[in-house]
């Protein structure tokens, strides 16, 4: 959804308005289906539980609404920024306890920054995380995941190169692109779901779907939660923490961008009321909730902001309804079984689009912010961040390893603080 189309309009339901009961369910379902594809995509790729991700998303959104005192209509879903580290650590067979602590650390970073914002304001964040740093880091997030997308699309991750897998991936990709380009309104906001559906049907026709879990499923099923001290003991692993915690600054920048768009849509200033510190704390608390359940980190969703802009229904009651429905859906066994049975080529086809969109959004940030790459300072920061993030550069001290996007983010922040700004161009 293009932000320049998200202009303020007279609301049909304002933030504090409660819809009539016969409209409430439909309006909340609309938000649920808008975030559904992206939220279940993250656990599907990383090997985590889709049911846990849905419950984490719902409870995290409710926590956010409580902390922001019901004044910001924002829905939170699984964050794409953490796909790479989660995939890496799960494949390396790090214990669930260490991954949970890594997710918890993301929320702690948010909490610390929210406290600083409360006392020191927001100007320092813009100095530490300007577009010249955030833009290329977002590009790294998308581009570093590109090999995973290609391997899934070609069937490499599920047994080897396969013509059937490529056919399914291309059908999935084609339908998702068509939905993005052709459909308007609400349907234009859920191209991922259209792609998923088309790819799944194609997989069924080509015999790529394993129906075992679906046959064994029941209507009600408790998701595969990983509860601290009950299912897994929290383990502090510095490698995991140092790879995940710095990415909080990237999603923080994205979060503030979403807040600016929401300000424009609703004709309010959420930075002042209820305050950016509350919004950041709510976002971080949602990730802490996810960590306590064994789910992926969550953050605010641009897709749902798009729904607000189109419908002009800003009611937090509608957002809360979507959150409750997400929790309920997480306990529906058939839904979890179907999601788990989605073949890798379907995920690969969607990934070819989504990971590219992530990278492109970083490039768009540089363009929109008019970052001049003819200026050596900017060129150095962007170039080094891209190569370090995509090239796999890492620093290891004993058993502690900082790599990939986290390393790129840290280096970008340091270069931005060290290299002096040209006083004539202010870049």
TrEMBL record:
A GO molecular function held by the record: xanthine transmembrane transporter activity
Keyword Membrane found: yes
Subcellular location(s) per record: Membrane
PROSITE patterns for this protein: XANTH_URACIL_PERMASE
Keyword Ligase: no
Membrane topology qualifier: Multi-pass membrane protein
Residues passing through the membrane, by range: 21-42, 48-67, 74-91, 97-121, 128-145, 165-183, 190-214, 234-253, 313-335, 347-367, 379-397, 403-421
Coiled coil, from the record: none
InterPro entries: NCS2, Xan_ur_permease
This protein's GO CC annotations: plasma membrane
Keywords, comma-separated and alphabetical: Membrane, Transmembrane, Transmembrane helix, Transport
Pfam families reported for this sequence: Xan_ur_permease
Listed PANTHER family: PURINE PERMEASE C1399.01C-RELATED
Family, similarity comment: Belongs to the nucleobase:cation symporter-2 (NCS2) (TC 2.A.40) family.
Record-given protein name: Permease
Gene from which this protein is expressed: pyrP
